[in-house]
Write a structure and sequence with these properties.
Blueprint lengths: L8 E5 L4 H12 L3 E6 L2 H14 L5 E5 L5 H15 L4 E4 L15 H29 L2 E6 L12 H21 L4 E6 L3
Parallel strand pairs: 1-2, 1-4, 2-3, 4-5, 5-6
Helix pairs in contact: 1-2, 3-4, 4-5
Amino acid sequence: MDLRLKGKVGIVTGANQGLGYAIAQKMVQAGASVVICARDQAKLAQAKSELAELAAGGKVESLPVDVSREQEVNELVEFTADNFGRLDFLVNNAGVYGPMGVIEGIDWEAWVNAININLLGSIMMCRASLPIMKKQRKGKIIQLSGGGATNPMPRISAYAASKAAIVRFMESLALEVAEYNIDVNCIAPG
């Protein structure tokens, strides 16, 4: 059994299903303690239960969080620090496609909401997590970007714009926190 993450603590956002769940699963199987979050409480509770059964020495906790809400983001990071005393990694996976259609015809509020979740939510997660990582003088931030970061996506413009912007933010952040031994990377699955 590979327990290379034994003793490590992390947060995975959007981890009640799909890729976020798979990432959290691999981390708990490698010995990490993981706090998962998502907006859907029922799916989150199910995911926590399943992941706890797979845990190889670490603990699994969960908290319903909308990453576009600063207070909820801060409470998530405080919860992690209070329960584990550290934060070694953050995986920003939470995201939405947003409305699909031509820009003048889509629901503007839904478009802005996609930016709030995909871009600002990830930035707020970093802002809340960095003081702990800087104090430890070590940490890892992994951002899921996606195809929107590399190619135009007509009729899915909120997704494309948010993913392109988050890549540039993460590139900038990587340089900003390098002196604290904090690694920042973007991954575009597929």
